[in-house]
Amino acid sequence: MASPSLSKLRVTMSARRVKPSAASRSIAHSTSAGKALSFSLHGLRAAADASNHDKVLRMVMFGKPGSGKGTLSSRLVKKYDILALSTGDLLRQHIAERTAVGQQAEQIVAQGGLLPDDVMLEVVTNKLDALHNKHWILDGFPRTLGQGKLLDTHLEKQDAPLTLVINLDIADEVILSRISDRWVHLPSGRVYNMSYNRPKVAGFDDETGEPLTKRPDDNPEIFSRRLKQFYASTAPLLSHYASGHEPTRLVTLQGETSDEIWPKLEAIVRSTFPTLRERAPRRGRYSLSNPFMLTDNPWFIRQERSSG
């Protein structure tokens, strides 16, 4: 027969063995434990998503009128797996499709007014929200500090912030000389420059043989007004992006021609976004208004023929 002290010791040891098992069952079946496990996994996924922010190209490009934004954007889109979105094309698409925002925009445009920032934001984000984890370039928006803040807020809510802002810093006199030498075939939008990219026959379109003309706004007076507007609206916006909003990176590129700036732009994009793939050769070009479709979009034809 065991002594009372030995029996007490066995009961104590048994109780100690039972406590961890009971505690394990309690933790395994508790609601709070389930939440803790779920939170931990969610945290890991969130961290992984955050680490991918700087691997996806979500870009806007700024530059004075005639600085070459369209030309350089079209080169990136043509060579790499990037989608380009033009706010002008998107707005025209909404109007043509008679969407709610398109009908609102049509009335404002018909009256000669400017679209409110919230309307422009809706036009843009309706398309951007479908491009999560895809590389894209946004053309034409934002143009003001208020629009920039609205866009930032929306993209942050979508967990898809801007990752690159390019500022093309071209001297005023260089752009003025460039537009002074520029001629256009108005029906097609094909652009020529008498300093480079000259037509085969001076004064006539290469494709149709029709006469070339000057754009109404290609003169020093109008350029000066557009330049003042650019400085007034864009300078605060660039200061906003320069103030360090992670993961947005602001890069300023200088040069006199698009051919001079292109290698610098390409080097920035390739080094910053190593997962970006070159586009396989295909017929046609990606449409700005519908980046999921291939088309011989005249916007690209114009920009590729243009110096600017």
How would you summarize this macromolecular structure in one to three sentences?
Helix content is 52%, strand content 12%. The protein has 308 residues and is α/β, with parallel strands linked by helices.
Using brief descriptors, characterize the structure shown.
308 residues; alpha/beta; Rossmann fold; five-stranded parallel sheet; 11 helices; globular; disordered N terminus; disordered C terminus; kinase; AMP kinase activity; AK3/Ak4_mitochondrial; transferase
Explain what you see:
With about 300 residues, the protein is of the alpha/beta class. The protein has a domain at about 60-270: Rossmann fold (3-Layer(aba) Sandwich). Helices cover about 50% and strands about 10% of the residues. The strands form 3 sheets. It has a 5-stranded parallel β-sheet, sandwiched between helices. The chain has a two-stranded antiparallel ribbon with strand order 5-6. The protein has a two-stranded antiparallel ribbon with strand order 8-9. A hairpin with a 4-residue loop joins strand 5 (about 180-185) and strand 6. Helix 3 (about 70-80) packs across helix 10 and helix 6 (about 115-130) runs parallel beside helix 7.
